[in-house]
Design brief:
homodimer, mainly alpha, Neurolysin, domain 3, 3 strands
Chain lengths: 498, 498
């Protein structure tokens, strides 16, 4: 009386899901704890684990079981059907890529990542370039076989790994819209900004322990469950671990607490998504978060939409003042709001403000397409990077460290990933606009540090739904339409020009 | 022109070795970083990884390849032959235990360990007892099938997991010798001690960061390579990780720096063994350290033989004084020597002095044999524990927290492990006596903080040899005879009665 093939598939994917969790913890360890000399041994560990997982994911029995599960006369419920659809998608992708290529790609990424960790502080693009070329070649090779299997263009096959359902042409349209909007809004925001009092920077030092304790305080307030997660330190903030043990990181500057704290807010947004996934569907393909665009929407909703807003900063200002024993007017809520929404074109993506950030993404999106298409060689990347910075933001980085060496992504094999940051920013605006309109308790709560209405809304409409719906279906269900850049543009105009 | 079957075996064991490293890092993470709420998910991860490894280790092809490798006309060199012998041993043990039992045992241990972490601070043996019973039952079941396959007694099959080559009757003989020697030496040492000035305890607080920094200073001096290892904090000090990334831990008491520092010395001894293993044989069965007895000999050689000796403490005293800004005569070398060799029967094994320590081990050895043989039930364990403490050390723990709940071992499935501590202490005395006799530079170096002669000797004679020889062969090669308790007894008499 049951769909036995489907039940067997759940059992197999459970095993795969658990093994994937071990990879996730090794990634966390690599970034937070592992000593430098262990990187080649760690690369071997990743390669072996991924090979084991690849074998389990792409074995012919999965294909046979999928066929039987589809043909079974016993109906699946909505979640089970969505789970089976996700299995088909995963299996198609997994079987497209030969195991040797998976192992070679994993090793190339580990070697390149380790080299980047050395090259970046030393501003030495040349030393990492051959390893990056290797990663790029293997990325192209992998994308080509996936594209073939999925019937997509090469770049769409890469996009599909990070935000399924979006295609190059849709992204291109949205990015052209944003790119043409940016120059004016940046100018207008800077004019409006110069007409207001100059924000006063609180003077440190801000002890790292105090910053970390404050971050944990806000994480608790936002609903982060420390029985199922941690906060640590790494070079580049990230959200790792697993839904039952979410590991977020930030990094701290004793002279400026804002960047570290905003890093924590950002990663807490990611973490809340993971902690809110349905326990019933743990380890199953349908039980994971949607693509990185939707994931980024959750981090940006918390960081940008909420934690840099007036209502939030009016609640948080006295807490910040107390944490750092602040004395002067720099700690007033309105000054903090001006600081947290200050617009200034700069070199580093992760420190960029909300308005110039999309320019950083469009640069990377255009460069990675050119590199993948072999319209640009890695030899010319530093110059091309600087030229685009000049064109879109009017500034030129003084070094590759502040240019094409700044982000881990490409060096770790994440090509097609960058667009999801800006897709996420647009999604965040669309979701939060809808949330506030449909439930006034959300913003009223934030004014007094009660995030329960907000988190409950997110749990109900997004986190708890996992992959039952696609990003586009979810967005349409919630807001009445698919992704529309107007929400993001409206948000920027209200926040920066009023 | 090659032994192809042997080459294929090396390839397979390399894979197994690398996957085992991932298990090792998850163990480190569990003890140092993992939040409480993640313990059941972690148990799933261990179970799945161990199941993958068990499948690879016990698959019939390994047996076939072993047969072919043995029958090949191409000779193996000494290392390769020893490697093949280790493969045979591992394969015999792996195939003896059905996979379901491996998984059940792993899950039982993870659940029991998590429960113990809660029960110990709450002094609640009752709550963890059913989980411990489960671990005990599965230990007995596993030992029985291994004993059958290896042609050993049940307890010898357990011993064989931790110190291959020793049997119950040999251990029993050595332990009876030590047990009959202990009461007199404890009395005599305490008499001698009371005739000397009472040692003065330096007064804290000793900031935890200062203790950790000092520990790292001594680790570096001893030759620990921080490019391939770390020092962290956990409830129970341990040495984990892998030879390329050795993770040691200690724990700190702000009122007393000695226990934390000695923990670091102890684990550094373990770490030096791992870091000194031959890179050529990495991941191969012959390339690992010998049993836990030999491993413990390395930690005790550093902690007990070296770091609690007069020559070491005369060098270290001014460093300790400076690190904690010590002012009075408590920081004089002779006072520190008296403190570090102070004899006092107490409840906690890990804090026990060198002379009373073997009594703690003999208690656990006798109790675990009785529990395994069903001559004792877990209901009666707390009382039996206290009775033996009374008999051997003349004191009774005021709580189970200071009694049968103090050690993780049994709760984590390590039965047959405890004897290796005292076998290690005896081995350490035998090795260090021989080392000093054959190379006077060793002790001369220690007097001035130069550990290079000592570590070089250990690298040459023990670390770099890995499993090329058995513990007994190694000991006979080095000292001219197999394990003999007289070296340990002589050492105690010289140190405590002179």
């Amino acid at each position: 009386m049951t769909n036995d093939a489907y039940i067997e598939l759940e059992k197999r994917y459970r095993r795969i899901g658990i093994l994937n969790e071990t990879v996730s913890f090794l990634h966390w360890d690599t970034a937070t704890a592992m000593p430098k000399g262990a990187s080649s041994a760690r690369a071997e560990q990743f390669a072996q684990l991924k090979s084991v997982i690849h074998t389990l994911t792409s074995c012919p029995e999965i294909g046979e079981l999928i066929g039987k599960a589809k043909a079974s006369k016993y109906n699946l419920n909505g979640w089970q059907q969505a789970n089976l659809n996700q299995m088909v998608r995963q299996w198609t992708k997994a079987t497209a890529v030969p195991e040797e290529l998976v192992v070679a790609f994993s090793k190339a990424c580990s070697a390149c990542e380790a080299s980047w960790r050395k090259a970046r502080p030393e501003d030495d693009f040349r030393s990492v370039k051959p390893l990056l070329q290797n990663v790029l070649n293997l990325t192209r090779e992998t994308a080509a076989v996936k594209a073939e299997a999925l019937g997509l263009s090469t770049y769409d096959a890469l996009l599909d790994d990070y935000e399924p359902g979006y295609c190059e042409s849709e992204v291109e349209g949205i990015f052209q819209d944003i790119a043409s909007f940016l120059p004016n809004i940046i100018d207008d925001a800077r004019s409006a900004q110069s007409a207001r009092p100059t924000p006063i920077m609180p003077i440190g030092p801000f002890p790292i322990l105090a910053q970390k304790n404050l971050g944990q305080y806000f994480m608790k307030a936002l609903g982060f469950d420390f029985a199922h997660g941690r906060l640590d330190t790494s070079l580049h903030p990230f959200c790792g671990g697993t839904p039952d043990d979410v590991r977020i990181t930030s990094r701290y500057d004793e002279a400026n607490f804002i960047s570290g704290l905003m890093g924590i807010f950002h990663e807490t947004g990611h973490a809340m998504y993971e902690q809110g996934l349905p326990a019933r569907w743990r380890y199953q393909p349908v039980g994971y978060s949607l693509g990185m665009g939707m994931h980024e929407s959750q981090s940006l909703l918390i960081e940008m939409q909420v934690c840099r807003s007036r209502p939030f900063l009016h609640w948080a200002a006295p807490i910040l003042r107390k944490a750092f024993n602040g004395q002067n007017t720099a700690w007033d809520a309105e000054n903090l709001f001006r600081l947290h929404t200050h617009v200034k074109p700069d070199f580093i993506r992760v420190d960029a403000d909300e308005i110039t950030y999309p320019a950083h993404i469009i640069i990377r999106y255009r460069l990675e397409r050119a590199l993948l298409a072999e319209d640009l060689s890695l030899n010319d990347l530093p110059t091309a990077w600087n030229d685009m910075m000049k064109e879109l933001l009017g500034i030129v980085p003084p070094s590759d460290r502040e240019g094409c060496l700044q982000d881990l992504h490409w060096y770790d094999g994440a090509w097609g990933y960058f667009p999801t940051y800006t897709l996420g920013a647009i999604t965040a605006a669309q979701l939060y606009t809808t949330a506030r309109e449909t439930n006034p308790n959300i913003e009223d709560g934030i004014r007094i540090g009660d995030f329960f209405p907000l988190i409950s809304w997110l749990r109900t409409h997004i986190h708890g739904v996992a992959r039952l719906k696609s990003s586009s279906e979810l967005l349409t269900n919630i807001s009445g339409e698919p992704l529309n850049p107007k929400f993001f543009k409206d948000h920027l105009q209200v926040r920066y020009l009023n």
